[in-house]
Amino acid sequence: MAEIERQPEEFLFRRIGVVRSVFKAKFGIPRQPGLIPEAVGQIVLQPPYNQPNIVRGLEQFSHIWVLFVFHLAMRDNWKATVRPPRLGGDKRIGVFASRSPFRPNPVGLSVLRLQEVCCRNGKVWLEVQGLDLLDGTPVLDIKPYIPYADSLPDASGGFADAPPEQTLQVTFTEHAAALCQTIERHSPGFTELARKVVAENPRPAYQDIPGREYGIFLGDYEVVWKADGPAATIFDIRPGEKTH
Amino acid sequence: MAEIERQPEEFLFRRIGVVRSVFKAKFGIPRQPGLIPEAVGQIVLQPPYNQPNIVRGLEQFSHIWVLFVFHLAMRDNWKATVRPPRLGGDKRIGVFASRSPFRPNPVGLSVLRLQEVCCRNGKVWLEVQGLDLLDGTPVLDIKPYIPYADSLPDASGGFADAPPEQTLQVTFTEHAAALCQTIERHSPGFTELARKVVAENPRPAYQDIPGREYGIFLGDYEVVWKADGPAATIFDIRPGEKTH
Asked: Which residues from chain A sit within 8 angstroms of residue B128, using beta carbons?
């Protein structure tokens, strides 16, 4: 062990880019990537990483891994156990048995569908789909998804063996539907995105207060809704620019 | 962008444990995890992370992600392109289109089969299978593998769509076979491990010098072999403790 103990204990990593995402606040972000294909965004590389060469060949891959920092989950203290929403929020499991953002090293891992690799006007960015990341998330690394090594369909996933059920049936009021139609002109797919994000039932499992209003910040808007049992109603779309 | 630019650009991460592996030197390590199930080892958590609570529930998962540091690939300079061995070593692709250890942030990602979660005598460690990691590798994070989110059997993998072919047919000399039999008494599976590691043809693609001796450090031994076309011969097993 002597040799190992001489190794460094701390490592300094540098941001290579940022995520531009429709998700402008934590509330409402899907709990895993790929759940909502309409959730699109960009990984924008920053200098000195904004070189076309650095992503050469990446366009051959359908999916990428993004390693990022849970920058709003950085705390001085970590806890050995967490309460995942999938378990109702009242059962504790070890932080290393979870994908919680509150971890000893707040590094996250998401697989995203790669739509396009773009190099234009000195800028280099990736158009991605199925985002579960907050706007402004610092990115540390991008790797190609290699199916023969990364895809293990027979792996067993403990309490997370199946995707979360979409528990809410979403309807729009006439007022909200009309606003969505207007927004669709410059943001096609907004209605479907809003519907799916609410359908994921982002409320904490232990919070089921009928009639309580919730707001989810999507793009330039706040989607306002309430739930009653298994039904949710989107009743307003407001201009909104929540910055976390 | 103003708000994003106020975010920190650098992040300090702390080692949470180290890898104990049969691979004592870089040469011979499989190029992806899972290729050699006989490659077993441990992820040993270090204080203050060596708490049984921190891995509570992890035993329900068949596989884990390990985020680690390529500690022997840390360089002051990164290059925008690399030459992956899969492409013959003479074609350059972008570093973000590769899984090369030489990256702007030298963070690696491996999925390993989890055999056992062990908490004994104040120690906490994970027994893992299918290792592609060097002994002493610093570990930053452990996450459960969640099949519904992480497994994408239909993803397309560019130049890495299929696993590498095992190009070498391996035979043992009588001398080497006898030594392996002795080693099997305290290290069961050693012979098969040696065979598979050599069969992976770890030589750089552009290096095919008939008769040249190669040594691979496995556990407490050095496996000595040479290749001639598609055939390899393991002709000696020596005591060996290469420390990188």
From this structure: none
